[in-house]
């Protein structure tokens, strides 16, 4: 039995301008071995404006990413309503839906991967928005359990959204992602609008060798914690502290999204926002140039230099997470 999926928040923080400077643009610094973007429910391929990648339609007769299903009962459909301000990597007005289990199989290289699932909760022909209720499994982990996409969208005030996970593919070089409607109601169904599978550097988030110089200690704990090949992660938020939204095309090659941190700062005093676009960034083996876009390091949020003011408040970010995570 595999260990449970771990909840992890990626907050890339630059709290002070360091003596390092930007020497160039590191967009695309990493070239992923596996770089797959599937446009579920579409019979054509197209280019995504957010990341300039080709999205392969899973309903294309020549597609290598058509789903596997015992009942062959899944359908493709276009959303009955679409919002003009929907921003997504995948063209999310088409979907694959089914009241029975279906799965996608990806033949990829061994090693850690990003898996991103894109959802646009809506009414589709024959499927009510409120009836989606399903679980998703991949590589032996339950990524989503009894998930209602429309409730998540409504709670977060999102027209569409994505869920990002990190997991490791074994020596069989096969990644199965299975969607299963929750039993008990004949109307419930599973659906997905887009799937991404992208390789990542082995040492980006995972560390199979304990290095005391790079150890992570959990709050209140003394022993170092490492993320190994048997761990899976969910990215809750990836924040560009003091900076702006960074779209996937502006990432270092892994198509990550970086949000501005403004709305997550909960203290009344939001600190000082120094910006230095001329600092010299000196990357190293410990911090390669693909770790984060250069622009992440050019902005910061500090408490300033006045000690009397600093002692009067805490600089705090607040991010909601699930109370229980399986």
How would you describe the overall organization of this protein?
The protein has helices spanning 149-155, 294-297, 307-310; strands at residues 6-12, 35-39, 46-47, 54-57, 75-78, 94-98, 102-107, 111-119, 134-138, 141-147, 161-169, 174-181, 190-192, 194-199, 216-217, 224-225, 233-240, 259-260. It has 326 residues and is mainly β. The chain has 3 helices and 18 strands. Helices cover 5% and strands 29% of the residues. The protein is globular and about 65 Å long.
Number of helices: 3
Q: C-alpha Rg, in Å?
A: 21 Å
Mean pLDDT equals 84
N/C terminus separation: 13 Å
Please, what is the oligomeric state? single chain
Global shape: globular
In short:
This protein has 326 residues and is mainly β. The protein has helices at residues 149-155, 294-297, 307-310; strands at 6-12, 35-39, 46-47, 54-57, 75-78, 94-98, 102-107, 111-119, 134-138, 141-147, 161-169, 174-181, 190-192, 194-199, 216-217, 224-225, 233-240, 259-260.
């Amino acid at each position: 039995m595999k260990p449970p999926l771990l909840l992890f928040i990626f907050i890339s923080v630059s709290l002070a301008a360091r003596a390092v400077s930007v020497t160039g643009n590191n967009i695309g610094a990493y070239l992923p071995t596996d770089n797959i973007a599937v446009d579920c429910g579409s019979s054509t391929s197209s280019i995504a404006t957010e990341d300039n990648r080709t999205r392969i339609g899973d309903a294309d007769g020549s597609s290598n990413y058509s789903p596997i299903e015992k009942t062959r009962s899944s359908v493709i459909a276009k959303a009955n309503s679409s919002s003009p301000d929907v921003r997504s990597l995948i063209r999310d007005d088409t979907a694959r839906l089914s009241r029975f289990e279906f799965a996608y199989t990806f033949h990829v290289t061994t090693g850690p991967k990003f898996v991103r699932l894109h959802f646009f909760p809506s009414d589709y022909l024959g499927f009510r928005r409120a009836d989606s209720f399903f679980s998703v499994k991949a590589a032996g982990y339950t990524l989503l359990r009894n998930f209602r996409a429309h409730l998540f969208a409504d709670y977060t005030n999102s027209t569409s959204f994505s869920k990002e996970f990190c997991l490791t593919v074994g020596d069989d070089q096969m990644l199965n992602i299975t969607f299963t409607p929750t039993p008990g109601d004949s109307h419930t169904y599973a659906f997905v609008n887009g799937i991404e599978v992208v390789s990542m550097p082995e040492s980006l988030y995972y560390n199979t060798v304990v290095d005391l110089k790079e150890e992570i200690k959990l709050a209140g704990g003394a022993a170092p914690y490492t993320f190994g090949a048997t761990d899976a992660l969910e990215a809750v938020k990836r924040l560009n502290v003091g900076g702006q939204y960074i779209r996937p095309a502006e990432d270092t090659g892994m198509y990550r999204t970086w949000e501005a941190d403004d709305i997550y700062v909960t203290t009344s005093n939001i600190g000082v926002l120094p910006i230095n676009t001329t600092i010299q960034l000196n990357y190293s083996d410990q911090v390669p140039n693909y770790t984060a876009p250069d622009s992440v390091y050019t902005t910061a949020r500090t408490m300033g230099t006045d000690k009397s003011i600093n002692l009067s408040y805490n600089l705090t970010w607040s991010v909601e997470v699930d109370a229980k995570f399986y």
